[in-house]
Amino acid sequence: MLLALGCLSGSAYGEERARVVDIVGFARNGDDHFQAVITGAGRGLEAANEVLKGRNQALLYCQPDIAITADQHLRIIEQSVQKHPNVGELGAADIGVALLFALQQAFPCK
To answer: How far apart are alpha carbons 75 and 106 in whole angstroms?
Structure first.
């Protein structure tokens, strides 16, 4: 996976670096490595939310009491990037930030 991410920088894209929209596109096209990156970020955010919940602290986002699948994480971030193109322009390393923003939009705390 690190090799795949490394290939996205420098020579693979000329002078440009990979962006969130690139990661989402690769994942949507069936690349298991990039699907795993998004799913991993999603699971990490879910875990962070559980820790905050256990400490009675404000949650990052307010997901209903349902499990979110890998495909749903992908659809959530994909829709966010389409609706907010500036999020898609973030660097690939900011995929977690982009997914957090997408989850906050999808599951706002009231």
So the answer is: 11
